[in-house]
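Re: the 537-residue chain
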Amino acid sequence: MRRVQSGQAGNAMMGGLTQLGAERATAEFGAWTSRIAGGELPSEAPPRPQGVERNVVITQWDWADPKAYLHDEIASDKRNPRVNANGLIYGSPEESRDYLPVLDPVHNTISQVKVPYRDANTPGQPKPLQPSPLWGDEEIWDSHTTVHNPMFDERGRLWYTARIRANANPEFCKAGSDHPSAKLTPVNSSGRQLEVYDPATKQTAMIDTCFGTHHLVFAEDANNTLWTSSGGGGGVVGWLSTKMWDQTHDAQKSQGWTALVLDTNGNGKRDEYLDSEQKVLTAPSGESLGTSSALGKVADPSRDTRLNAAFYAVAVGADGMIWGSVLGFPGGIVRLNPGSHPPETALAEYYEVPWNNPKAQAWGYSPRGMDVDRNNVAWVALGSGHLASFDRRKCKGPLNGPEATGQHCPEGWTLYRTPGPAFRNLTDSGSADSHYYDWVDQFDTLGLGSNTPIVTGNSSDSLIALVNGKFVILRVPYPLGFFAKGMDGRIDDPKSGWKGKGGWTTWGTRTPFHSETGKGTTAKVVHFQIRPDPLAN
């Protein structure tokens, strides 16, 4: 228990431990640690690379500083991987720093971009709950902005989620406002907002949003709409018309948000809905720490129904539909159709991960990261040790109405058990590996084919790609370790074959100083490439 309380992450770690049941969890983790100290090994040895796995080229750079950690990086516009060719890579240090680490991979240099915040009362980081063995009582994290996720636009500008103020929202977000979204769903607070940095002018603009932000992604539409997730809390999904922002720099006019409303009366349009209290336990930033049921029994089949949920992950299909993951057990995904005039027309569909469902081929649970391919198939990282796909085209029953409450399309799901040993005495779950996020390489930037889904192997030092129904493990060799979060790909030179493209990610653990290389270790930028054969150069 004392070890879990160490350092500035102590409060968060104790929160997670309490959710598990602190007494039993500490006993189990203690026994696990003792078994490892006694020489116990996993039930399966990691296989040596085979086939295309032997063709992987990994390049790493240090960046940031020894007291910082990294959450994500971005190399290009996910809609067009030729944007920012040979350009700078930017990262997000979340709770640790109020700067963006920057890598120039051509000249092998690093720098920083300061991240501003607007108000002096913007929250900072907590003091250590207990001293750290390495840092004592030192407050090594000093971020106010808690930058979570960056994204390039088509012009090479960097958009990212950042806290610019205290949680209380401006009046235009609240009840009584004439803002179209506030009229339908007033929002009193948000834990993180938006910023945009232009590398050409080196200027940063802060954009106040009523909705909380966490992940973000651009749509392929005329407005270059930036859709955001809240991390699972807050009860709404928000967006920013970057076209309107560029024309007016008016945050109020450029943004909108919506509740997730199901068409439970089955008439094909959004009507008056039965509201629900948004009972989602969240961190100060708005990220979900646990959810009650997203949807129980439909209480009034004559009305539509609001989900007790918001997006954790967010992705936009080529058809303009917005997808998001819903944390919890069994958890699920939402398809949001904005309609012709959101928020008034926005309608959601909810698909739970198959669980206790005799019609399903396999059961799973606890989604987290999610992305979509060019065929509008959603790919989801599951806590049950699976990479799952959901193809709405396979659904046989009605997708709205009072029975469309989550487990109504098991045929749309396919669960792929990921590699690695299972938990002891379990036969029905997948791997014991931990899968934080996934990414679909829509444009074959890595060399494994277009629309390749890739999930993070956070307990196996790897990225795990599904290629023609079989997993390809891209493992970073011991002893340094590897813990990825976000991923993307970039094409620097389409004429130079494998050398001119690759996948990018960052080593994102919050405690790089706990690695085998010890205190002084910094986070890494990691570049993956696939050669045509092991000796190609």
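The radius of gyration is 22 Å.
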